[in-house]
Automatic annotation (TrEMBL):
Key words of the record: DNA-binding, Transcription, Transcription regulation
Organism the protein comes from: Hydrogenoanaerobacterium saccharovorans
Protein family per UniProt: Belongs to the BlaI transcriptional regulatory family.
GO MF entry, a single one: DNA binding
Name of the molecule in the record: Predicted transcriptional regulator
UniProt superkingdom: Bacteria
SUPFAM superfamilies on file: Winged helix' DNA-binding domain (SSF46785)
One of the GO BP terms on file: negative regulation of DNA-templated transcription
Keyword Transmembrane set for record: no
Annotated TM spans: none
Length: 120
């Protein structure tokens, strides 16, 4: 699976949240406030996502309709494994130690993780 840019990820979030096929115009309407992309910018990112096998494009009348080919869960899972491999040599312990040592986790979050892990 090909990695996608942050901008492409913004569009994928909208597509995943919508769950049904969606047009570029509908995506443009759902962009966060402050994101002033023109339709051509959105179309460029959607074209790249199609080339990367993330979305399917289908012509419906005058509009193109986009549908996710990869689920959010699947994409995030593969990206997480890739990140662990690239940055931490595949070690979850190294990753967690980095979070704890950098004070990025609160005690409550650590307790929640312990509880979640014990139930697994």
């Amino acid at each position: 699976m090909t990695k996608i840019s942050k901008s492409e990820m913004e569009l994928m979030q909208i597509i995943w949240e919508h769950a049904a096929p969606i047009t570029s115009g509908e995506i443009l309407e759902r962009l966060p406030l402050g994101r002033d992309w023109k339709n051509t910018t959105v179309l460029t990112f959607l074209s790249r996502l199609a080339e990367k096998g993330m979305v399917q494009v289908e012509k419906q009348g005058k509009a193109n309709v986009y549908k996710a080919l990869v689920s959010e869960k699947s994409y995030r899972g593969k990206e997480t494994v890739s990140f662990l491999e690239d940055v931490h040599g595949g070690s979850v312990k190294s990753f967690m130690a980095s979070l704890v040592d950098s004070n990025e986790l609160t005690q409550q979050e650590i307790d929640e993780l312990k509880d979640w892990l014990s139930k697994r």
